[in-house]
Structure formats: C-alpha cells, structure tokens
Amino acid sequence: MDMPNFKDLLQKLSVFKSNVSLLVSTVLAVVAVLILVLTPLLLGSKLKKQIDTESIAKDRIIKNMPAVARGQWEVEQEYQRFYESDANEIARLGRHSTERELLSYKIFPDPNGRSQFVFEEFGKGFRSRIDELIAGMNGTECPTDSELKSALESSRARVRPGMRRPSSSIGPLSRSPGRSPSRLVGSPYAGMRFSKVESTIVDELCRQKGTSGLVYTNPVDLSGYEFWKIYEYAGISEAVKNCWYWQLGYWVIEDVIDTIAACNSGSSSVFRSPVKRLSRVSFNLGVEGRRGRSARGRRFGRPMRRTNEDQPTYVLSAMGGLAQPCTGRFCDDDIDVIHFNVVVLVSAEAILPFMDELCSAKKHGFSGFFGQEQEQIFEHNQISILESSWSPVEPESMAHRYYRYGEDAVVELDLICEYIFNKVGYDAIKPELIKTSLQAEDQTGVR
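Above: the chain's sequence. Below: its structure in token form.
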C-alpha cells in the first residue's frame, strides 16, 4: 500500500491560509456533524434507563389497577360537594351558636353616650331573668329565718299558761320526729334549745319546702346576682365592661339551669328529682375554692358577693383559667373561651346523666342583635367539662341541716367547665374597648 503523500495533503490544506472564512465554516460543519452523530449515542442509554424505570414501570402499575367504574368521577364529585356542604354547615352552626338573645339591646356595641340608667336597667334585667329561670325550673329553698321564726313562735304560743317550757340538749337538728333537736347555728336562733315538738315542727317545715319544688336553689349562689343588687356606676367604660362580661355570665347560668330543668323533667318534688340542689355557679374559685370548697352549703351567715371579683373573664393562655384545659383551647383568632365552676347535689345515679345533659345541644331564640328581626330558633353546644370530682353528702351535717333530699344516696358534684364563643357570631356587637383591652392583655400577658 502506498503511503499518503503528506506534502500533497499540506498543499491542499494550505488553501485555508488564504481563505480564513472558509476554514471557520468547515470547522463549524465538522462540529455540527459530531453533535448530531454523538448526542443520540450518548443520551440513548440514559433515556432508555429512564423509560424503563419510570414510564414502563408506571404503565405496569396502571394496568394492574382495578378497573374504575364509568361513573366513578360523578360519585367523587358528589362526595366533594357533600364535604363542602358539611363544612359550610359546621361554620353556620358555629356562628348561630353565639348569636344569642341579649339582656339589653341598648348597650352593645356602643351605648352612644346613654345615661347610667341604661346600665342599672341591665342589672335589674339580669336579676329578674335569673328569678324567671329559677321559677321556670320550679326551684325552692330551705326555710328562711322568718319562716322558722313564725313556725316556732306559733308553736310556743300554743303552750297553755302555767305549763313549763320544755328544753333539751343541743345537738344536730333532727331530720325526723323523735330525734335530738339542735341549735340553729349561724341564724338568729343560735344557742336556743328546742323541744322534741319544736324540732318536729322545724323538720316538717323543711319537708314542706322540699315538696314545694323540684330543686333547691338560691339566686345569691349564682354569680352576678348580688353584684347587680348593689351596683354602683363607675363611668361608662367600666359599665360597658361589666355589662359585657355579665352578659356572657348570664348565658352560662341559663345553660346550667336549663340542664337542671331537663334532668328533673317529670319529677314531682326534690325527693324524686335526680338533681337535688344547685349550690354554686361561679367564674372564680376564690379562697373558698382553693380550700376545697369545704364551706359550701352554709345557709346562714353567707357573705354576700358585693364585688366584681367573680366576673367572667376570657382565658388568654393555657394557664389563665380555672383549670389546665385538656381541650387545649383558649382565646385565638376564631374563638373566645371562658371558664366556670358549677356545683350541684345529685343522686349518685345521676352523675353521668347530668354531665351528659350539661354538654348537650340546647335551643335558643334569636331576633337579631338589635331585637328587631323575626325570631329564629338556633342550637348551641358550647360547654366542655375540664375537671370533675364528687363527694358523698352527709344529710345530718350542719351544711345540710335544713335540706331534705329524699331516700336517694346524694353526692356533691363539682365541675370546672369551659364555654366557647365563636367570634364570627358576636364580634359585630363586641364593644371596641373590650377588643382593645384583650389585645393589650394578650401582648403583655397581664390581665
């Protein structure tokens, strides 16, 4: 084979020396040919691997999937439509639960410079509505001082002249004829001694009170009742705050009393009622609560709640309420939360039914926040129980000496609960000064 003549080859290439543009064009053509030829070869193996691992593998998965019915997409669409409707219904119910009847339609969101009499009217309305609620659940009370005085003086007046007035030892008040009499500790009769006959009269009077209603209750045991009795106007800002928070408090008390009424429906007297006595509704446990509520039940000598220390307050943090919330709820962008304490005396079998009823849905009427719309009936279910405890009641003890509960075993049920308000339901009437003060408290952490 003849060797290439490099001299001739160099002579041929020397033509590029005199024509640079031809050289550049030739080089670009060679590079383009290399790219067109080599790129498929270089990418082919990678593309083939990607097709095998992704496209073909997914194709196998799709082919192995069960066949989808022709109208399956319509079923899914209907499900999504129902899911949306359900979410909207929950939002609607949440809003309506906080759209509640007001004690006054002249104060919220702004009293517009009205006189102090508007706030005094609010207080009178608070007390009168509490009285109506108690009457509605057929509430009764143990004998009052005047009733005891009248009964005892009447019995003594029947003693014939010249007869010796009987006396006896001092001990626990008898619950039935024939037992030892007692002093009326804490009442105007403290230190007095009573005969067997007089003790029988007192016992009979107590039994009559027990048969005259379905549940023992005294309005002074419901927070706010005594506060509004001796209310003193202290400026419009303070008055608006008082009215707003006690409006919340009234809604809580209303639900507690409605719960008792529902539990006792069908009963003929306290003796037959599952709920025997409403001892307390409070928004601040106070000293009595911190001592384990050992002083509860005292009928006479009970201090009047004349301050606003027991006013409802919003719970702004997990540590800001009456108990650590197991629900993890406190005020945020969507809800407001308050805590309250309720103590009732119930038959031992009624503990769980009462708790269930307390946390159940209740109906309410709503005529708009200015009372000028046609009334609508909504439902609310805003109570959750955070803590519960109970202890047996000793009917012969001094705390219960004027109460008659029947033959049932009775316990004192002590509950700490939370109450939820959906902001979208009542923010339109929440006073601006309340919103401002809450923002300041939330930022500083100081109440």
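The longest strand covers residues 335-347.
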